[in-house]
């Protein structure tokens, strides 16, 4: 059974921090690229950050660059998103996505975790 589960969301004030976790089971996590997406009410899904299967390269959307850090620990089948200096604009449901490196048509999504940043 393939599972991809996000956790770590919550309510914080502007300027606060959260660390999200994405934990996989049921398949070989080290063979997957992983991204964090977010979706705010009434808006389209947005790519937040991306990390290669070995963790050697990362990318970020401009709005979070310098504030968010994506990392992974393949031994724990987990990818993290450290979020600092949070803003109300960061409020959204955050989703983890894993893509098979040998066939990008094969991918999985988690259930999402809510992040709310109060003004």
Report on this structure.
- This protein is mostly beta strands.
- It is 0% helix and 54% strand.
- The protein contains no helices and eleven strands.
- It has strands at residues 3-7, 10-13, 18-25, 32-39, 46-51, 58-60, 68-73, 78-83, 92-100, 107-109, 113-118.
- The strands form two sheets. Strands 2, 4, 5, 6, 9, 10 and 11 form a seven-stranded mixed sheet that branches.
- A hairpin with a 4-residue loop joins β7 and β8 (78-83).
Write the topology of this structure.
Elements: E1 3-7, E2 10-13, E3 18-25, E4 32-39, E5 46-51, E6 58-60, E7 68-73, E8 78-83, E9 92-100, E10 107-109, E11 113-118
Parallel strand pairs: 2-11
Antiparallel strand pairs: 1-3, 3-8, 4-5, 4-9, 5-6, 7-8, 9-10, 9-11
User: How can the largest sheet be summarized?
Assistant: 7 strands, mixed
Q: DSSP strand (E) fraction?
A: over 45%
The coarse silhouette is: globular
- Give the helix proportion (percent range): under 10%
Catalogue the unreliable spans: none
Query: So how many helices?
Result: 0
Series of H and E elements: EEEEEEEEEEE
Please report the distance between the alpha carbons of the first and last residues: 40 Å
The number of distinct β-strands equals: 11
